[in-house]
Structures are given as C-alpha cells and as structure tokens.
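For homework, think about our next protein:
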Amino acid sequence: MAAALGAGRVGRSRAAVAQAPSPDIAVAPYRVDTHHHFFPPFYLAEARQQILAAAQGFPQLFEWTPEKAIAELDKNAVATAIVSISTPGIWFGDVAASRKLARRCNEYAAQLAKDHPGRFGFFAAIPLPDPEGSLAEIDYALGTLKADGIGLLSNYGDKWLGDPAYAAAFDELNRRKTVVFVHPAVANCCTTLLPGVQSGLVELLFDSTRTITSLLFSGTLARCSDLQFIFCHGGGALGQMAERISALDYQKALAPRFPNGVMHQLKKLHLDVTNMTSPAGFDAVRDLVGIPNMLLGSDFPYGPLAATINGLARLKLPPEELRAIERDNALRLLPQLRT
C-alpha cells in the first residue's frame, strides 16, 4: 500500500496551475499555497495537550477536515496547497513514539494527496533530534511517498537548525536537493519572557530569524548549497536584521562559514508572505530576497486564506509580480506541480 500512496498524486487541477490565465481574468483555481496545515484526527488526539499549549486561542484547529480545507481552497481560487504539520510538530522526546507519529502523519498526507488529485502536496515530517529515525523517514517520505519536501520546526528543545546534531539529516537532504519548509516554534527558553503576552505573538517570528542565523553561522547554508529553504512569515525579522548580520563579513575568522558572503546566503532563501503584506513588512522581504523568492502562504486553518490574498491585492503590485508570488515562483521551486 505504501508504494501506491505515492502514485497518482498529480491530476487535472495541478495541470491547471501551470495553464491558468492571469489573476485578473482567472476563474478557475490557479494559486499555490505553500504554507497550509493539516490536522489528522489521530494527531489531534495523541498531541492534544501539546497542541493546546502551542496554539493558544485557535479552537478551529480541532475542527479541521479535508472537506473544510478544500472549501477554503475553492473559495480563494487556490489550485494546490502544500500541507505540513504545524507547531508543536511530531517530536515530544520519545524516539519510538515520534517515529510512529511522523510515519502516520506522512502516510495520511500522501493519502490526502491521492484522494484529492492536484489539490494537495505535502512536506513530510521527520523526528529531527533522532538522527537514525530522521534518515529512515527521509528515505521513505521522499522515495516511497513522493513528498514534495521536508517540513521542520525552527527549533527542537532549544537546539536550532544549525546545531551539529542535525548535520547528518541536512547532508542527506542536500544530497537529494530537497525543498525544506521551516515553520517557527517558540523555544522552551522563551515561553515566559513577556508576562501576560502570548509567547507566539512575537517569539514565533524571532525564532525563524534565530534558526536562519544558526544555519548561517554553523556553515550549514554554505555546506548544503543544494537545499532550497522556505521560511514562513517572511523569515520573521530577517529583513530588518540582514544588514546587521552581514556586517560579520568583515570578521576573517568567520569567512569559511559563508565564503560568498552573508547576503549571498540570505538572498537564496525563499520566504512566504504570511502576515507580511503590510507595506513595511512586504518591502523588507522584497528588498532582501526579491520577488522571485517570495511565496504565497496562508497558515490555514490558523487564519483564512483571504487574509494573505487580500493583503497582497491591497499592495497593487504589477500583475506579473503578483502572479509570481501567488503561483509562478512555487511552480519553479516545485516543478512537479506542473505535471
């Protein structure tokens, strides 16, 4: 059955993504949402307490169904959503349990894509703090299930993604030239920094910036140059901090970690525009990576797809730039969507 899950994933709706007319005259779905979450019933049951702690004030997560997700796609002219497991992920410290949960989530996502041809792709979950389990799941998810990439959290138990403990997994993903989607998670160290303020309000964004900096300083971005990273929410505060971080180019001791310079590495990243459609936020992302590396993301079901789509519309971008963000950039990054 496992081999069959990877077959038949691409259908007429995916072909329509590549053939759809420009947004101003399109009727059929054409957008691609690369930041879209799914919540299998068994995941909601097994990780209920962790989800409640991580997702304060979002009861709609427990009402997720494939039918509601598809209705949201249809309402917003989205042809394909690439689904992923959101915070708190699948790693809760138990190796065997995390391996099992990752496998079940990935097989569910593959079946979801098979059951609804063209409407869903998926970024597979792996138990990153478990090196052996991660390598096994990478092989199964990418080789057998034909996942569109791998989905990670920005930190695992206060270890950010540049930590040497994760090097073997990143080297294997680099060998496979994988798309790696990184969703922020509030680190254990930062859950109570601001009394009375929900930790996710600011810490999620800062944690994306922390883990990008970790990947940069560890040399992972330079070493794993065939990886294609997607970071949510515009990379957090990265646009505002990139110039400050790039000042490290002048420190000769650090040069081997980013031999082509800090900005060269940062500009290769792909950033989605979830919560980044205000003029100031959008401009910071565009100034850093440029329109070709910007992607549509919704964070559904945390929020409606229309929030990002309408935010982009208010910016009154040239039609070719809007089309690139909403569709064309994702097709270039994930060419299998064109099939």
User: Anything to note?
Assistant: The beta strands are 31-37, 78-84, 120-125, 149-153, 179-183, 228-231, 270-272, 294-295. The first strand starts at residue 31 and ends at 37.
